[in-house]
Structure formats: C-alpha cells, structure tokens
Design brief:
Layout (H helix, E strand, L loop, with lengths): L6 E4 L24 H10 L3 E7 L1 H4 L5 H15 L8 E5 L15 H10 L6 E5 L2 H10 L2 E5 L6 H8 L7 E2 L2 H10 L3
Parallel strand pairs: 1-2, 1-4, 2-3, 4-5, 5-6
Helix pairs in contact: 1-7
Bound molecules: magnesium ion.
C-alpha cells in the first residue's frame, strides 16, 4: 500500500495507552484496542514512529521524568514491536503556565523531525485524542487524524477550534492508521 505519510507523531495518553490522569505507575499502563495492530500496519508500510507527550505532572512536581520513562518502557514492552519501535520520544514536562518549546500545541517537535529526517511537513501525521494534538498539526502544517477514545469529545474540540484543515476522527487507532494507508493524496 502506498501512502504519502512517512512518519507518525503519536500522542501517548488516550491514544496509545489508556488515559490515567498523571500516570506515574508502570503497572497502570494499558494499551488501547487496535493500537498494536495499527502500529504494525504503519511499520509494515515503512512509516517511522515518534511519540510526543505532554507531561505537566513533572513540571508540577507530581512525579519525575524517570517515572514517565518507566511508563514508556512498560508501554514498549506491552506493544511487543521490538526494543525500539519509536525513533524518538519527546516529553514536554512544562506546566501550561510556563514557557515551553515543546508542550503541545507547539509545532516545534514536528518541525524538528521534518528538518532532521528530511520529511516534507505533509509527509508527517499527528495522531491524537485531544484538540491540542491536532493544533500542533495545524500549526506545523502536518497532517493529523484524531482518535476518540471517550475521555473528551474530540469532534466538539475540533469544531470549536475552527481549524483551517480538516482532521478526521476515528473510534479506533487501527482505523485511523488504515485511513492514512488507503488515501491517495
Ligand atoms: Mg492524549
């Protein structure tokens, strides 16, 4: 299958794993339905995978970056897609009220990936469950698809944001990835 998309920037909480507020315990990491299948499809199609996660719990002093990394390791173990399925994981640790280079809706991580790996911006696609994931896509001029895993009304967030581009929303992660693999443009 041919796809213009060469790289996925994946949100973590509510997209790859169950959203547990201020997750810090690896024992609470649960892979969401369709994620393993979707990532397998993406990898088989030659896409590179990146993770971009806001973790203000670090900046708020609720837990440490080491605990975030332990949860990431558990996620990678449960995904069972090899030791390093992600080319890079960007953790934005800042609180919403402080200056941040990477906290979503920042476009910086996507711009960095594009420059470093030589992707056109429309060869990159954000996948996330929040308006801020798609706002990063909008601001960086990448593609974006949403997954509605039930915590927020993602479609309502998208409608309220009045984005310039359209971001389709899917009920499951694998359906979102399948849509990228099968679209012609
Ligand atoms: Mg999320």
């Amino acid at each position: 299958m041919a796809s213009r998309v060469k790289a996925l920037i994946l949100d973590r909480d509510g997209t790859l794993i169950s959203h547990v507020p201020y997750l810090a315990d690896p024992a609470q990491v649960m892979i969401l339905p369709g994620v393993r299948e979707g990532l397998r499809m993406a990898l088989a199609a030659g896409m590179k995978l990146f993770v971009h996660s806001n973790q203000s719990g670090v900046g708020r002093g609720f837990f440490s970056l080491k605990e975030v990394e332990a949860c990431n390791r558990r996620m990678i173990e449960l995904l069972d897609l090899g030791a390093a399925p992600f080319a890079r994981i960007c953790i934005a640790t800042e609180r919403p009220d402080e200056f941040s280079t990477y906290r979503k809706p920042s476009p910086e991580f996507a711009r960095e990936i594009a420059a470093e790996y030589g992707y056109a911006l429309d060869e990159i696609c954000y996948v996330g469950d929040r308006g801020s994931d798609l706002e990063s896509a909008e601001r960086a001029a990448t593609r974006g698809v949403g997954v509605s895993t039930g915590l927020d009304d993602l479609q309502a967030e998208i409608d309220a944001a009045k984005f310039t581009h359209s971001y389709p929303v899917f009920a499951r992660f694998d359906a979102a990835i399948f849509s990228l693999l099968t679209r012609a443009d």
